[in-house]
Amino acid sequence: MSKIFGIDLGTNSIGWALRNPELTENQIEKFGVLTFNKGVGLGKTGEYSYAAERTKKRSARRLYQARKYRLWATLENLIQEGYCPLTIEDLNKWRHYNKEEAHKNNNGGRIYPIWNTAFDAWIKLDFNNDGKPDYSSPYQLRKELAETKLDFNQEINRFKLGRALYHIAQRRGFKSSRKGADDVKEKETNDNDEVLNLQYSEKKKNKTIAELFERYTDAKTIGWLFALLETDKVRVREAIAQYAIRENYKDEIKYIFQERQELGFEHPLYTKLVETGKNKNNGSIFYKRP
Length: 290
What we know:
By secondary structure, the protein is of the alpha+beta class. It folds into two domains: 4-43, no CATH class; 58-273, no CATH class. It has eleven helices and seven strands. The strands form three sheets. It has a three-stranded antiparallel β-sheet with strand order 1-2-3, with no helix packed on it. The chain has a two-stranded antiparallel ribbon with strand order 4-5. A two-stranded antiparallel ribbon has the order 6-7. Helix 5 packs across helix 8.
């Protein structure tokens, strides 16, 4: 005697039945249904995908993680070249998880080096250690670096450049989402000039920066421009900073290293923080995970 087992798959249930074809009347001997939660959620706007929600939150976590790794790598390079008053040991306490420390002091296993007075003063723009910031904001420091040639044989000037570069690493502008040869640029066939390959919305955003450069003709870099806007009581981070693209910040570093401070693109600090070769963007500040 053979029997037939049938199933009916639904979005949140499985129906089943056991059929005996040898019976003359009702051939269904047993049947039932198993229900379970849907694979989608129900919100105010209707159904939504659980997978999409997980992906969105995972993407946010990876952005935070990438930012931390970028800052740690930038600090490591600045420390190695003598442009930051922090030690590798202190940096490791911040970037490396310590299980014993986490259980002992309930601090998450990482220690931000705010207890390092020299680093604390460096972050607060206090380079002469008098307890007061030497600049009203990092933009004013970046303006000075683009205006004035400094003597980097003096430690205080090295720390100033390092602090400005760290500030750029913290806010390096948005990356173009346009797909291209280098995901960012395309080359003209006639010369070596670089042409930004931006989406329409990105061009519209960056147009605001271009218009500001036309108004503030003295500004040679994006940091210099923001410093002038601050002097005119414009809230840069709230109203303007989101319009800057990554290329604006890269041009600022180029200007400081080549035109103003004459350190050159072969300087180890430039190759570590920006790029080892033209348009590679493989330095710690501008590196982008594949």
